[in-house]
Design a protein that fits this description.
The complex is a heterodimer of chains A (368) and B (341). By secondary structure, chain A is mainly alpha-helical. Chain A is built from 15 helices and 2 strands. In chain B, 52% of the residues are buried. Classes of the chains: A mainly alpha (368), B mainly alpha (341). At the A-B interface, helix 6 and helix 15 of A face helix 6 and helix 13 of B.
Chain lengths: 368, 341
């Protein structure tokens, strides 16, 4: 709920009918609409973090649009976005680079949002959908629909089915031992390995051309991005973000023990289910566009958490950071070794792998 | 009391001897099946005809030039990976330690990719480079295992290993994207498969397998003592540090050799000691003996399935070992108490 207008229900800060001044806690701004009798508390640090991340994302987007096989000046990019400039530039920016940029932003945001939800749900910073096998489940089912095993359903729907299957398997298998330990994660790795093998199995069955077309699915790339899936992801991301922000208060409480959370008025089981569902749907929709780029779901929330205060779950900051990471990773993959294009999944794996190891190696801290 | 104890021990030994017989029979049977069945057009009947004396040129070529070397290599790879898994589990005292899962195989594969990109030829250098990579991977894993907090939690070590091998895998992929020549040389090797390997590969790795075998014979007893704890082992006159280093050297030789032939294959080093321990009990010496037939049995079975499932094309062996190994991993992790080694 970082920095987001959130109706505050606690009586202490509610707008008094008399309109007299109310004490604002330190580190917060109070924004009030006296005529409606509503006031909200904004955390100063969260506002700053979100504005900073948005600015960084904008800058990265402009950079993304200007760099490539033909380098454009940022001015030309902005001009052609506004409908000015010559037609060649406009074609390059609007037809070639912009769709890919939008796909990168959407997938990064969706992965990171799903990641921060899942981490909070499992109270485990390693429990991102990619690590516990949900990405691989979605990929396996999406590939099944692409290589055409007699299934005529669109990839997003199949990815959703696969993500749900994997989530049910992982959480079901971990039912005895809870979700906080490393056992849960390793059970998820096992589930992911099975689905990864199934993907390989299906790719081996088909002709080499189809297998080449499906190659991005195995590493994660923004090359093959079906337009319909991107649209669906955009809708899903918008709805999911709203839903996550509506759940923000419960999410903050879900970080505590079950007893404390329910004592503070959270319907723990219902909220859990909602959060899990949201995370799974977002992951599935993102996988249907970009394949398994799961480590964004680890990096984005990590950046957001290190910037934000520990008071809240940094939902919006994580979403922005995920989009930023994805845009920068795809930019690096496109330009660093040009003319060879490195799939974005490999870039994030090379960057995120050491990060993951570092999280594992350093001494334990209790913060999820 | 003493008598009953001796009697039960004798009976136990007898039953374990039965087990060994059963396993060896199964291994012979699977080897024969491996000769009989393939992705090509030569079916069991032609092979049986060939074995009983008929002379069919195509069948002769396929069986003796393709399937027989493949079977022998499968046996060697199974033995190497199974024994390496048992050793690594004993040294790290971690029932989940598998050279493939912990990044030792990935280290070997990464070293080979690096050598190729730097200009070496796949034919000449592969085995020593793979063994060096495996050694470095091994040392990394074990130094991580000795970190405080990580080593006491077997599951956490596996997670670190998975992250490590994921990282090395994508670095290898990155280098191969960059260097087309290396990619062409290595493409069919990096997925992990027994297809198209020649007998020369086997002869090339045989010396290191023999050296590692001799090493295992030497360290089996000290390892069994080490299972009692470091103090007990030194009290019995062994030197824990030296034993560990010898074991690591053997693991590196074995995994490097297996990876150089067949590519990185995960989960075999997990499943084989798991099965062997279930038969033989906790003693590492017995476990190692049982790894000898169990390893090839599992690898050959997976290899046969990989030929049959998607005929006329073939499946990478690593896919099948993952399919049968991941459930074992989950089962071990789900157990209330992890078996401590």
């Amino acid at each position: 709920m970082s920095g987001v207008a959130l109706p505050h229900t606690s009586t202490a800060y509610q707008e008094e009918p008399s309109g007299q001044a109310v004490a604002v806690p330190q580190g917060y701004w109070r924004a009030a609409l006296p005529s409606y009798g509503v006031s909200v508390l904004l955390e100063k640090r969260a506002v700053a973090v979100n504005i900073g991340l948005s600015a960084a994302l904008m800058a990265a987007c402009v950079l993304y649009l200007s760099l490539g096989s033909v380098t454009l000046s940022p001015n030309a990019v902005v001009a052609s976005l506004l409908g000015q400039g010559d037609r060649m530039t406009a074609f390059m920016v609007q037809q070639l680079r912009l769709p890919r940029l939008i796909a990168a932003c959407f997938t990064g945001a969706a992965f990171a949002l799903a990641g921060v939800l899942m981490q909070t749900l499992a109270r485990n910073r390693l429990a991102t959908p990619g690590i516990i096998g949900i990405d691989n489940g979605a990929t396996a089912f999406a590939v099944a629909s692409i290589v055409g095993l007699g299934v005529g359903i669109a990839p997003p729907a199949m990815a959703l089915a696969g993500a749900t299957t994997a989530a049910v398997l992982t959480f079901g298998l971990a039912a005895g031992s809870g979700t906080q330990g490393y056992r849960f994660i390793v059970a998820g790795i096992g589930v992911g390995a099975v689905f990864g093998a199934v993907t390989q199995l299906m790719l081996a069955r088909v002709a080499i051309d189809t297998a080449n077309a499906a190659y991005p699915w195995t590493v994660g790339s923004l090359n093959a991005r079906p337009a319909s899936a991107v649209q669906l992801l955009g809708i899903g991301l918008a709805l999911g973000l709203v839903a996550a922000l509506a759940l923000a208060r419960s999410l903050t409480l879900l970080r505590f023990k079950d007893a404390i959370a329910s004592g503070l008025g959270t319907a723990v089981k219902v909220r859990r289910l909602q959060v899990l569902l949201l995370s799974v749907v977002l992951t599935a929709l993102a996988v249907a566009v970009a394949g398994p780029v799961g480590l964004v779901a680890l990096i984005g929330p990590e950046i957001a958490r290190s910037l934000s205060s520990a008071r809240h779950v940094p939902i919006l900051a994580a979403t922005l950071a995920g989009a930023l990471v994805m845009v920068l990773a795809d930019l690096a993959g496109r330009t660093l070794f040009a003319p060879i294009e490195i799939p974005v999944g490999i870039v994030t794996a090379v960057v995120g792998g050491p990060w993951l190891l570092w999280i594992l190696m350093r001494p334990q801290r209790s913060r999820p | 009391m003493l008598l009953t104890k001796a009697g039960s021990s004798a009976r136990w030994r007898c039953s374990s001897r039965h087990w060994m017989l059963i396993l060896l029979t199964a291994l012979v049977a699977v080897s024969v099946v491996s000769l009989l069945i393939g992705a090509g057009s030569v079916g069991p009947r032609q092979v049986l005809g060939l074995l009983s004396g008929s002379d069919h040129a195509e069948a002769r070529f396929i069986v003796w030039e393709l399937r027989a070397p493949r079977t022998l290599i499968g046996i060697a790879v199974g033995v190497a990976l199974g024994v390496a898994g048992a050793l690594l589990q004993a040294v790290s005292r971690n029932p989940l330690a598998d050279p493939g899962l912990l990044g030792v195989s990935a280290g070997a594969a990464f070293a080979v990719s690096l050598a190729l990109v730097l200009g070496a030829s796949a034919a000449t250098l592969r085995i020593p480079v793979a063994q060096l990579g495996a050694l470095i991977g091994c040392v990394c894993v074990l130094s991580v295992a000795r970190l405080r907090g990580v080593g006491s939690d077997p599951v956490r070590l596996v997670l670190a290993g998975a992250a490590f091998s994921g990282l090395l895998g994508s670095l290898s992929a990155l280098m191969l994207l960059y260097d087309q020549r290396a990619a062409d040389e290595i493409r069919f090797w990096v997925v992990g498969s027994l297809a198209g390997r020649r007998l020369d590969d086997l002869w090339a790795v045989l010396p290191s397998l023999l050296i590692a075998g001799a090493g295992v014979v030497v360290i089996a007893r000290p390892l069994a003592a080490l299972a009692l704890g470091e103090r007990a082992a030194s009290g019995l006159g062994h030197r824990p540090g030296l034993i560990r280093w010898l074991a690591v050297g053997c693991v590196a030789l074995l995994v490097g050799a297996a990876t150089a032939i067949a590519g990185p294959i995960a989960f075999v080093g997990l499943v084989v000691p798991f099965v062997a321990r279930a038969i033989a009990g906790p003693d590492i010496r017995r476990t190692l003996w049982f790894c000898l037939p169990v390893g090839p049995l599992i690898v050959l079975t997976a290899d046969i399935i990989s030929r049959v499932v998607v005929a006329p094309s073939e499946l990478p062996l690593g896919v099948l070992t993952a399919l049968c190994g991941a459930p074992v991993l989950i089962a071990v992790v789900r157990a209330k108490r992890l078996p401590m080694l």
